[in-house]
Specification:
With 238 residues, the protein is an alpha+beta fold. Helices cover 29% and strands 24% of the residues. Strands 10-6-7-8-12-4-1-13 form an eight-stranded antiparallel sheet. A hairpin with a 2-residue loop joins strand 2 (19-21) and strand 3.
Protein backbone atom coordinates (compact mmCIF):
# COMPACT_ATOMS: atom_id res chain seq x y z
CA UNK A 1 0.00 0.00 0.00
CA UNK A 2 1.13 3.56 -0.79
CA UNK A 3 0.20 5.60 2.28
CA UNK A 4 -0.27 9.38 1.81
CA UNK A 5 -0.16 9.80 5.59
CA UNK A 6 2.68 9.52 8.05
CA UNK A 7 0.17 7.84 10.38
CA UNK A 8 -0.22 4.07 10.36
CA UNK A 9 -3.08 2.78 8.20
CA UNK A 10 -4.81 1.36 11.30
CA UNK A 11 -5.87 4.94 12.15
CA UNK A 12 -7.05 5.94 8.68
CA UNK A 13 -10.61 5.97 7.35
CA UNK A 14 -12.24 6.40 3.94
CA UNK A 15 -15.16 8.83 4.28
CA UNK A 16 -16.06 9.11 0.59
CA UNK A 17 -14.85 6.65 -2.08
CA UNK A 18 -14.02 7.22 -5.73
CA UNK A 19 -17.10 7.10 -7.96
CA UNK A 20 -20.50 8.70 -8.50
CA UNK A 21 -21.71 10.92 -5.66
CA UNK A 22 -25.00 12.79 -5.88
CA UNK A 23 -24.99 12.32 -9.64
CA UNK A 24 -21.46 13.69 -10.07
CA UNK A 25 -18.21 11.77 -10.38
CA UNK A 26 -16.13 12.12 -7.23
CA UNK A 27 -12.71 11.95 -8.85
CA UNK A 28 -10.72 11.16 -5.72
CA UNK A 29 -11.09 9.47 -2.38
CA UNK A 30 -11.60 11.29 0.91
CA UNK A 31 -9.40 10.09 3.75
CA UNK A 32 -9.32 11.01 7.43
CA UNK A 33 -6.65 10.28 9.99
CA UNK A 34 -7.71 9.70 13.58
CA UNK A 35 -4.09 10.24 14.63
CA UNK A 36 -1.21 12.12 13.02
CA UNK A 37 -2.62 14.24 10.18
CA UNK A 38 0.74 14.81 8.47
CA UNK A 39 0.59 14.09 4.73
CA UNK A 40 3.59 12.65 2.91
CA UNK A 41 4.72 11.93 -0.63
CA UNK A 42 3.75 8.46 -1.87
CA UNK A 43 6.81 8.34 -4.12
CA UNK A 44 9.69 10.34 -5.58
CA UNK A 45 8.77 13.28 -7.76
CA UNK A 46 8.48 17.03 -8.17
CA UNK A 47 6.08 19.68 -6.89
CA UNK A 48 4.17 21.27 -9.78
CA UNK A 49 1.57 23.28 -7.82
CA UNK A 50 1.41 24.44 -4.21
CA UNK A 51 -1.25 27.07 -3.68
CA UNK A 52 -4.36 28.28 -1.91
CA UNK A 53 -7.11 29.07 -4.42
CA UNK A 54 -9.64 31.62 -3.18
CA UNK A 55 -11.17 32.87 -6.45
CA UNK A 56 -14.66 31.30 -6.62
CA UNK A 57 -14.53 31.53 -10.42
CA UNK A 58 -11.59 29.14 -10.42
CA UNK A 59 -12.86 25.53 -10.53
CA UNK A 60 -10.04 24.42 -8.23
CA UNK A 61 -11.16 26.84 -5.50
CA UNK A 62 -13.13 23.95 -4.00
CA UNK A 63 -9.79 22.31 -3.17
CA UNK A 64 -8.63 25.20 -0.99
CA UNK A 65 -5.03 24.56 0.04
CA UNK A 66 -3.75 21.97 -2.40
CA UNK A 67 -0.56 20.48 -3.83
CA UNK A 68 0.04 18.69 -7.08
CA UNK A 69 3.11 16.52 -7.33
CA UNK A 70 4.17 14.51 -10.37
CA UNK A 71 5.74 11.16 -9.65
CA UNK A 72 8.81 10.16 -11.61
CA UNK A 73 6.56 7.70 -13.43
CA UNK A 74 4.50 10.64 -14.72
CA UNK A 75 1.39 10.07 -12.60
CA UNK A 76 -0.13 13.22 -11.10
CA UNK A 77 -0.98 13.23 -7.40
CA UNK A 78 -3.25 15.82 -5.77
CA UNK A 79 -3.44 16.55 -2.02
CA UNK A 80 -6.44 18.84 -1.36
CA UNK A 81 -8.20 20.74 1.49
CA UNK A 82 -4.99 20.90 3.51
CA UNK A 83 -4.68 23.09 6.60
CA UNK A 84 -1.13 23.97 5.54
CA UNK A 85 1.41 23.17 2.84
CA UNK A 86 5.04 22.24 3.46
CA UNK A 87 6.38 22.27 -0.12
CA UNK A 88 6.97 24.83 -2.85
CA UNK A 89 6.75 24.75 -6.64
CA UNK A 90 9.83 23.21 -8.24
CA UNK A 91 10.84 21.38 -5.09
CA UNK A 92 12.11 17.82 -5.42
CA UNK A 93 10.59 15.39 -2.91
CA UNK A 94 11.27 11.80 -2.03
CA UNK A 95 8.87 9.16 -0.78
CA UNK A 96 7.92 9.95 2.81
CA UNK A 97 8.73 13.67 2.67
CA UNK A 98 6.13 15.91 4.30
CA UNK A 99 3.66 17.52 1.88
CA UNK A 100 1.35 19.25 4.36
CA UNK A 101 -1.30 18.77 7.02
CA UNK A 102 -4.82 17.41 6.60
CA UNK A 103 -7.41 20.18 6.88
CA UNK A 104 -10.76 21.57 5.80
CA UNK A 105 -10.00 24.49 3.46
CA UNK A 106 -12.00 25.13 0.31
CA UNK A 107 -15.36 23.42 -0.19
CA UNK A 108 -15.15 21.08 2.77
CA UNK A 109 -17.51 20.11 5.59
CA UNK A 110 -14.84 18.67 7.84
CA UNK A 111 -11.16 17.87 8.13
CA UNK A 112 -10.11 15.35 5.49
CA UNK A 113 -7.78 14.76 2.56
CA UNK A 114 -9.24 14.72 -0.93
CA UNK A 115 -6.68 12.51 -2.65
CA UNK A 116 -6.77 12.36 -6.44
CA UNK A 117 -4.70 10.57 -9.08
CA UNK A 118 -4.48 11.48 -12.76
CA UNK A 119 -2.57 9.63 -15.51
CA UNK A 120 0.53 11.08 -17.17
CA UNK A 121 -0.39 13.80 -19.66
CA UNK A 122 -4.03 14.02 -18.57
CA UNK A 123 -5.68 17.30 -17.63
CA UNK A 124 -8.95 16.46 -15.90
CA UNK A 125 -9.22 12.69 -16.28
CA UNK A 126 -8.84 10.81 -13.00
CA UNK A 127 -8.39 7.16 -12.04
CA UNK A 128 -9.50 5.28 -8.96
CA UNK A 129 -7.06 6.56 -6.34
CA UNK A 130 -7.99 3.75 -3.96
CA UNK A 131 -6.88 1.15 -6.48
CA UNK A 132 -3.76 3.15 -7.28
CA UNK A 133 -2.51 3.22 -3.68
CA UNK A 134 -3.76 -0.29 -2.96
CA UNK A 135 -6.80 -0.01 -0.68
CA UNK A 136 -10.44 -1.03 -0.95
CA UNK A 137 -12.66 1.70 -2.39
CA UNK A 138 -15.25 1.52 0.40
CA UNK A 139 -16.30 3.75 3.29
CA UNK A 140 -14.82 2.78 6.63
CA UNK A 141 -11.49 1.71 8.03
CA UNK A 142 -8.76 1.66 5.39
CA UNK A 143 -8.28 -1.91 4.21
CA UNK A 144 -5.12 -2.49 2.20
CA UNK A 145 -4.93 -4.64 -0.91
CA UNK A 146 -1.68 -6.59 -0.98
CA UNK A 147 0.86 -4.76 -3.12
CA UNK A 148 4.06 -6.37 -1.92
CA UNK A 149 5.06 -10.03 -1.72
CA UNK A 150 4.02 -11.33 1.70
CA UNK A 151 7.01 -12.54 3.79
CA UNK A 152 5.38 -15.97 3.96
CA UNK A 153 5.89 -16.39 0.21
CA UNK A 154 9.69 -16.41 0.50
CA UNK A 155 9.62 -18.39 3.75
CA UNK A 156 7.40 -21.14 2.39
CA UNK A 157 9.47 -21.39 -0.76
CA UNK A 158 12.73 -21.75 1.20
CA UNK A 159 11.19 -24.38 3.46
CA UNK A 160 9.84 -26.31 0.50
CA UNK A 161 13.21 -26.13 -1.26
CA UNK A 162 15.01 -27.54 1.79
CA UNK A 163 12.53 -30.40 2.04
CA UNK A 164 12.88 -31.12 -1.66
CA UNK A 165 16.69 -31.20 -1.53
CA UNK A 166 16.67 -33.40 1.54
CA UNK A 167 14.15 -35.78 0.02
CA UNK A 168 16.03 -36.10 -3.26
CA UNK A 169 19.29 -36.68 -1.38
CA UNK A 170 17.76 -39.41 0.72
CA UNK A 171 15.98 -41.12 -2.19
CA UNK A 172 18.53 -40.63 -4.98
CA UNK A 173 18.93 -44.39 -5.40
CA UNK A 174 15.26 -45.15 -4.83
CA UNK A 175 13.69 -46.63 -7.96
CA UNK A 176 10.27 -46.91 -6.34
CA UNK A 177 7.48 -45.76 -8.60
CA UNK A 178 5.45 -42.89 -7.19
CA UNK A 179 2.17 -43.99 -5.66
CA UNK A 180 0.63 -40.93 -7.26
CA UNK A 181 1.77 -42.13 -10.71
CA UNK A 182 0.18 -45.54 -10.15
CA UNK A 183 -3.14 -43.98 -9.12
CA UNK A 184 -2.97 -41.53 -12.03
CA UNK A 185 -2.57 -44.40 -14.51
CA UNK A 186 -5.48 -46.26 -12.93
CA UNK A 187 -7.59 -43.12 -13.16
CA UNK A 188 -6.94 -42.48 -16.88
CA UNK A 189 -7.61 -46.16 -17.59
CA UNK A 190 -10.98 -45.85 -15.85
CA UNK A 191 -11.75 -42.80 -17.97
CA UNK A 192 -10.82 -44.69 -21.13
CA UNK A 193 -8.09 -42.20 -21.97
CA UNK A 194 -5.40 -44.90 -21.89
CA UNK A 195 -5.31 -48.70 -22.01
CA UNK A 196 -2.41 -48.70 -19.55
CA UNK A 197 0.35 -49.33 -22.08
CA UNK A 198 1.26 -45.65 -22.24
CA UNK A 199 3.25 -44.21 -20.73
CA UNK A 200 5.53 -47.23 -20.58
CA UNK A 201 7.43 -45.93 -17.54
CA UNK A 202 5.77 -44.37 -14.55
CA UNK A 203 7.26 -41.40 -12.72
CA UNK A 204 9.49 -42.31 -9.81
CA UNK A 205 9.06 -40.60 -6.48
CA UNK A 206 12.10 -38.35 -6.78
CA UNK A 207 11.11 -37.42 -10.33
CA UNK A 208 7.69 -36.40 -9.11
CA UNK A 209 9.25 -34.20 -6.45
CA UNK A 210 11.39 -32.51 -9.09
CA UNK A 211 8.30 -31.85 -11.22
CA UNK A 212 6.37 -30.44 -8.28
CA UNK A 213 9.31 -28.27 -7.31
CA UNK A 214 9.58 -26.87 -10.84
CA UNK A 215 5.91 -25.86 -10.85
CA UNK A 216 6.21 -24.48 -7.32
CA UNK A 217 9.18 -22.37 -8.34
CA UNK A 218 7.37 -21.03 -11.43
CA UNK A 219 4.41 -20.05 -9.25
CA UNK A 220 6.74 -18.43 -6.71
CA UNK A 221 8.60 -16.45 -9.40
CA UNK A 222 5.38 -15.31 -11.07
CA UNK A 223 3.93 -14.14 -7.76
CA UNK A 224 7.03 -12.07 -6.99
CA UNK A 225 7.00 -10.57 -10.48
CA UNK A 226 3.31 -9.69 -10.14
CA UNK A 227 3.80 -7.77 -6.90
CA UNK A 228 7.01 -6.06 -7.97
CA UNK A 229 5.68 -5.01 -11.39
CA UNK A 230 2.46 -3.69 -9.87
CA UNK A 231 4.33 -1.53 -7.39
CA UNK A 232 6.85 -0.29 -9.97
CA UNK A 233 4.13 0.65 -12.46
CA UNK A 234 2.57 2.95 -9.88
CA UNK A 235 5.61 4.65 -8.39
CA UNK A 236 8.28 4.31 -11.05
CA UNK A 237 10.59 2.84 -8.40
CA UNK A 238 12.71 -0.17 -9.40
Amino acid sequence: MLNPYREDISKLRVTSPFGMRNGVLHKGIDLVSDGDKTLVAIGDGGIITSTMVTDPNNPTSEWGNYVRMDLDSGWRVYYCHMASRAVTVGQRVRKGDVIGIEGTTGNSSGSHLHFEIRPPGASTEAVNAADFIGILNVVGKVTPIVTEPPPELDLEYEQFKKKMVRYLTETAADETVSEWAVKAREWVMELGVSDGTMPQQLVKREELWAIVFRFYYIFYAEMRNFFENRLESKTGEP
